[in-house]
Amino acid sequence: MATKKPENLSFEEALDELSHIVAQMEQGELSLEQSLKQFERGIALANASSGKLQQAEQKVAILMGNDSQAPLSNFDSNLD
Q1: Cα distance between residue 42 and residue 63, in whole Å
Q2: pLDDT tens over the chain, length 80 residues
Q3: Are 54 and 46 in contact, with CB atoms under 8 Å apart?
Q4: Staple 9 to which of 14, 29, 57, 79, CB 3.0 to 4.6 Å?
């Protein structure tokens, strides 16, 4: 299976893969070359995730009218 580019993954997919990479590296069974490759992939995933999070924060700010003083409220998923 081909590995997707980090920017083509959803936020959740990127976090899942990043968690998997961290677990692999913590086990200490990867060679130096494999560790460096996984580290590089992890940095790319973290950067892509950070960018997606910033985009989401910008959308929320726009939806709230860019009012930094607007009160936050709990999300109610049980709207009738």
Answers
A1: 31
A2: 468 899 899 999 999 999 999 999 999 999 999 999 999 999 999 999 999 999 888 888 788 776 666 666 666 655 54
A3: no
A4: 14
Report how far residue 24's alpha carbon sits from residue 47's, in angstroms, rounded to the nearest whole number: 20
Q: What is the pTM of this model?
A: 0.72
Its sign, for the CA torsion 62, 55, 11, 46, is negative
Q: State the Cα–Cα distance between residues 30 and 38, nearest whole angstrom.
A: 9
How far apart are the C-alpha atoms of 59 and 22, rounded to whole Å?
30
Three-state SS for 11-57 is: HHHHHHHHHHHHHHHHHCCCCHHHHHHHHHHHHHHHHHHHHHHHHHH
